[in-house]
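Marked as duplicate of an earlier ticket. Keeping the data here for the record.
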Amino acid sequence: MSSLTALDITTGIDAVLAAGGGISGRMTDSGGTGLSGEIFLIEDLGDYYQIHSTRTDANGNYAFTGLRSDDNYKVYFQPYGDDYATEWYNDKTNETEADTITVIAPNTTTGIDAVLADAGAISGKVTDAAGGGIAGVSVGVYDMNQNRLTNFFSSIPTDTNGEYTVSNLPAGEYKIFFSTVCYLSEWYNDKPDFNSAISISVTASNTTPNINAVLAPGGSISGRVTDAAGQPVAWLMVSASYSDTFGTRALSSTNSNGEYTLCGLGTGSYKVHFEANGELDEWYNNKPDFESADSIAVTSPNNTAGIDAVLGAEQATVTITPILMLLLQK
């Protein structure tokens, strides 16, 4: 008959939790009617941001609890529907200008309210040169008065007909960026960068229509990857960088026959990298690093073919997780 040995239990591992502070307020329209929506609380912790979210009640009231004492909170108001403009506290259009809010636990900082203005919108259609709508184009909206990297407003995809509408916009000036796979990206109206892009005026309660784009097909690079025995290497990651700047410009993977195509490239010079699981690391043409890799000329919209790679015997086996395989097939 076996016996049981009592387990040693370490006791006294206690904690006394301090009461947290809070932030509360109300989101309304100009007539004082409470609005339903999402409220986001952003806490700047220096190296990273901590984001909290909650919903308003039927009267537009909201509250955050359990907050640490800090003087660097910001609140963003996002109403449901398209009738009202989003805003940051206190009546600001972007995070950079938003007022910071101080919390001193265990107290609640009250009165962090928002009276939302009527929203404007921008609409348009994205097509190819033949006039066919391009689905899934990312339409990015930026405030023209702010740095485009720090004052990104929102992004939505075009529908199956290539049409889009960006709603909930505060009145003001905006710039629009269009980007998608295998076409050349551009700013409105057919401009190459933020500074030269044409600004678009938005007024409250109105839609600014016909902000359209005709995207040109980009150039491409294609090739085949095999092992030392001439067998195809499938599901290998292939990327292209500008020849003078290391950084992925286009990304693809080989298919079951070892073939790949990198598309959406503008006229220029590129370097191609072959990699899987961080272990296979070869640059075209059989070079060990970016600096020594051969440059490949691309003339849009043409394809530069024959950019092949032959992996050594020890590199031929590519192990890839099922999840990554699904992502590559999309």
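See parent ticket for discussion. Residues 322-329 form the longest helix (8 residues).
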